[in-house]
Amino acid sequence: MGNGKGKAKELSPQDAALLIQMNYRAHLAHRSQVLSCLRDLAVAKAKLKELRSLFYNLSYRRRLSHDHEERQRFSEKIIVLLLTVEALEVTKELLCTEDILPSI
What we know:
This protein is 83% helix and 0% strand.
């Protein structure tokens, strides 16, 4: 319990239990956010894999070059993927900030 600022404060068993419980709940909430972010990342990775396979498919590329509507749909899929990845980056930054803030 030493924090370098003199004598450590003794906590009552109830206060210690409450402190442990609060920290554990915060840990569970943070872990839940991280796992949710990882699930979203897995979905984005699968979408990227799908788009990549479509792009490397020569017959699909020919179709893209001639079919404006299909090219538009493909472009929209790419934009959605980019927005998803950007949202994941923002979430990652927020989660990292949460790790730093309690230590300040």
